[in-house]
């Protein structure tokens, strides 16, 4: 399915939803809509340095450490590994009917933000401690 076909299919599907059903899909935890064949899905999954909170997973260094390598090829390999592990976990949990938080494939990290204030509680997350880092990575 190409992008145009996917957009057309999504538009047709949304057109069949009630306003309540459509609104229910706007939250991070989207309930199933059985009459349309839409399974439940939770959009909140984390993978800052590996797939988090979904059982055992490979753990990589924090984003700041990875960014400091300036090694784009290494980061691509790590991202590919995380993606593969996330998809495998999603497939396994889906077979069990578990579509709760942290079991999806929509990862909310890494954070792309230039770190400017040391009081920021999530300061360790972005690779951009040095504003130059996001450019080559």
UniProtKB/TrEMBL annotation:
Lipid biosynthesis as UniProt keyword: no
Cited InterPro entries: BXL, GH, Glyco_hydro_3_N_sf
GO biological-process terms attached to the record: arabinan catabolic process; xylan catabolic process
A molecular function GO annotation: xylan 1,4-beta-xylosidase activity
Leader sequence segment: none
Keyword annotations of the record: Hydrolase
Family designation: Belongs to the glycosyl hydrolase 3 family.
Protein name, per record: Beta-glucosidase
UniProt organism field: human gut metagenome
């Amino acid at each position: 399915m190409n992008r145009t076909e996917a957009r057309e299919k999504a538009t047709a599907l949304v057109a069949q939803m009630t306003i309540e059903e459509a609104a229910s899909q706007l939250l991070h935890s989207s309930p199933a809509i059985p009459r349309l064949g839409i399974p439940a899905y939770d959009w909140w999954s984390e993978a800052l340095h590996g797939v988090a909170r979904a059982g055992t997973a490979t753990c990589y260094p924090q984003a700041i450490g990875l960014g400091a390598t300036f090694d784009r090829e290494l980061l691509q390999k790590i991202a590919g590994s995380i993606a593969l592990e996330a998809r495998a976990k999603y497939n396994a949990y889906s077979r069990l009917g578990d579509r709760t938080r942290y079991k999806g494939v929509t990862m909310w990290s890494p954070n792309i933000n230039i770190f400017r204030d040391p009081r920021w509680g999530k300061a360790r997350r972005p690779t951009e401690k040095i504003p130059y880092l996001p450019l080559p990575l």
